[in-house]
Amino acid sequence: MKLKDVLSPLRVWERAAQKPWTIKDPLNDRPGADNYRGFHKNDFSKCIGCGTCEEICQNDAIDIVPVEGQETVDGDSGLRPRIDYGRCCWCALCVDVCPTSALTMSNDYTWISDNPEDYRFIPGADKTKWQDAETGYERSPDMQLINFDRVEMAEMHPGQRDKSFIEIVKGYNKEQAMKEAERCIECGLCIATCPAHMDIPAYIAAIRDDDIENAFRILYETNPMPEICGRICTHKCETACALHNNGDPLAIRWLKRYIADQIPAGKYQEILGTKHLEDTKLNKKIAIIGAGPAGISAAYYLAIMGYKTKIFEALPESGGMARYGIPEYRLPYDQIDKDVEYLKTLGVEIQYNTRIGQDISLEQLHKDYDAVFAATGLHLGRSTRITGSDHQRVYFATDLLREVTLGNEIDVAKNIVVIGGGNVAMDITRTLARLQNQKFGKVQILATCLEAEQEMPADLEEIVEAREEKAIIEPAWGPVDIEIKNGKISGLHVSKCLSVFNSEGRFSPEFDENQKKFFKADMIVESIGQGMDLSYLSEGIKSKLKFSPRGRIEVNEKFQSDLKWLFVGGDIIEGPDVIHGIANGYLAARGIDGFLTK
Amino acid sequence: MNKQSECKYSGYSADRAKYPEKKDGKPVIDLDSHKFTKIWQGPQHPGVTGNMSVEIIINGDEIIQAQTHVGYLHRAFEKLMERRKYIQCFPLVCRICVPEPDTNEYCVSAAMEDLAGIVVPEKAEWLRTLNLEMSRIASYLMWIGGQAGSLGMGAIGQWTVGMRDFWLDLFEEMTGGRVYHMYMIPGGVRKDLPDGFIEKARNLVIRTRKLLKDVENTFLSNAVVKSRLQGLGVITPAMVDEYGIVGPNARSCGKEYDIRINNPYVKYGELDVKMITSTVGDAYARAQLRYEDMHQSLDLISEILERIPKDGAIQAKLPNVLNWKIPAGQTYIKAESTRGEHGFYMVSDGSDKPRRVFARGASYTHAIAVLEKLAENISISDLAALMVSLHTCPPEIER
Ligand code: SF4
Ligand code: SF4
Predict the structure, then answer these.
(1) Which residue of B has its CA nearest to A137?
(2) What is the CATH number assigned to the segment(s) A158-263?
(3) Does domain A270-379+546-597 have CATH number 3.40.50.1460?
(4) Cα separation of A540 and B399, whole Å?
(5) What is the CATH number assigned to the segment(s) A29-137?
(6) Ligand 2: which atom is nearest the Cα of residue A103?
(7) Is the ipTM here above 0.90?
């Protein structure tokens, strides 16, 4: 034993003089660290009730529940997470995975209650002692558990496409599609928002599993036009996508197109199990007016239910506004044909160049068929009715687009102004830009609309691409009159538009008369909306129908009119867009089935 | 280091021929003979290192036979992981070892990264290294408390566990949690260092060194400690491979095995980690070795604090963790914890959940086979000291 080892420990006495380390009042003197994973907070203004927090929690501590005062709207389920502190381990995975960053943690860490029920609470709704406490743990922007960046879509660059009508968007390949599909968090907010309530997460999951045939079957459960929708759907689902709150929404539309593109037309029947449909035909016949999306959708679902279905189409080919209103560079005609050809294999007949009301009367159809579904679409243009708009070189966008599809030569001036800011306006602008380029080697076209840039109804990509193709877009101007000199159009006078809608949300534009502009043009195209042509309704039939103040035929939720045999749907009822048409067609088919089997 | 000189138990060995008698190589223990008493040390006993117990048979105060019993803390983490998505395994594993959770986090994340082919960014690797060394300090500080406490010296434990709390403060700032840090998420780490952290960590290194001086004076240079620990629980080089002894327990009898050096991971390859060994192999040698390892850890922390890059990503981009499937394969990832080699074997079958996870902790061997062997013929009063000197951790045995 060494003496040092006996004496050395005596130094411990030095410690008696040291300041103690203990904190006397830890609750007040020692707040949690800035980054502390304390009690949960939820910012209801950001939370969308996607349930991803519930999904990730490995302790099943979260239930997503209805909360008073939270409405279900597009992109928000109205539900909110309720957390059970009997299960939670404060791992904060829920915080990290929350796509809106609504969920955070405070740095508060003490809570006393004698009621065990209290520990199951809804952060953000139930009053908590830490609701004003400092925020503790939040997801670091440098760390992601879900992926906010969309897989880029290959497109033709502007120089390649500005003279041609070849499809611009190239579509995903397998690797890209699987990578994009992986981003889905399966919250299902998109299903609620999609007019056809397609089971989007399910078909995306099938892409991830590389089970394209199953994905394709899921598409056809609610949508018989995947090739069309996969290209030009207005994709309301993507606006509702949870990822949209912090980054790029999932490319749902392109994924749908990816699925449909993988399946060759010849395999449709086999995959969808519709090979021997003819054997099961019912003895009921249905006439459909219009081979647009609503008509095709209704025909498809009626056909697989076993009805004999015939479509009457006024134009020489099917697709309706999808063919005659949308340029080929967005939706190639063979893709429409692919969906329609399959429909024909199911025994659906299509009679082209037959206009109901002229070639056959509606009354005749009623006589020959058990039910009629009218989906005639919005093919008429609407005029601004400003001075000069009756000039022969003032056209409607819908008319020009139809002529282009029909292959007829149209009037293309050197200098064109388009009035309108929607997708149709962009379609005609970009179509005419291509034709100008082909004819004159340069583009001189300008589109102007009432709405300010960020309020323009057209898709952002349409606006961007139109500009890339050298069209000029001048938002926030209202047309005043068209100047005509010596019988020729010289341009459009506009004044500044300050707002389009009044405080009640009604259309009531306000202008600043002092700010004026003149857009030179020798041809003007109006694209401010489309109208319907209901001339096929005879006075006798009209008198038995009800109409809304805006002239729409009133129908019930099955799209049945007051004439029980007449169902009406598509753009003339809802929309206008493809997906509403498809949804209407589906519901009308079920309505017709109900009507005929009751 | 000290020689294994004055082994005070040598007197007992003469009696070993008598008690217990052996038949077919096995001791015959007849409790009715009144020569033996059976006692349970644990599971509720201040002299066990956690939720386990040692069933001992004594003759007088000499332990004739010891048997470790576990099963009080089994939480089936390995099985739980088979039913959870990969990312959901990450917050589970820290619970495998309470005093040193970070090695588990590292191994599990690194196993997933290895299987999925994810490369962790430079900065995150540095932060992980820092986290692991901080964890080492915190674990050793707790161990000192246990070792001193096992000899009846309560005060030393109060200082070191108090100091550990300051390290937990740092953990709280860095990770958001004091005990369960859940910091090394697959792909990297969850947060960058907060402002002022480096300064605070530097100061704490200085404070800890001061404390270690006190520990040296009162504990290592202490006649009582020496007389109790020297010669206790001697591990011989021959035992190391036979029993699979690792970490300080193995190094204390000359085995040169420290994963930080032998198979460098995170940033250890770029740091100067020295192999600290001893040849004595007794409980005192282990204490001294751990003490030196703490100093080395403080050196490493100081160096890491200098070298952490200011900028750079803290996490590699992961796929959406809700749909994260890892290609089929298997891997074994190991790291040097304060108790030695700690590893995770992970098998993936290409789905979104691990097919099998096996957690390998050093304590399984140390607290069962090694403890049972070394407890033979020691005094019952030294059993607690022996157990702590092996630095065993029951939650890690049970998983
Ligand atoms: S993950 Fe976020 S946004 Fe979604 S329900 Fe939970 S808290 Fe709300
Ligand atoms: S902190 Fe972890 S355990 Fe608690 S609710 Fe969130 S995910 Fe579940």
Answers:
(1) B176
(2) 1.10.1060.10
(3) no
(4) 82
(5) 3.30.70.3270
(6) 6
(7) no
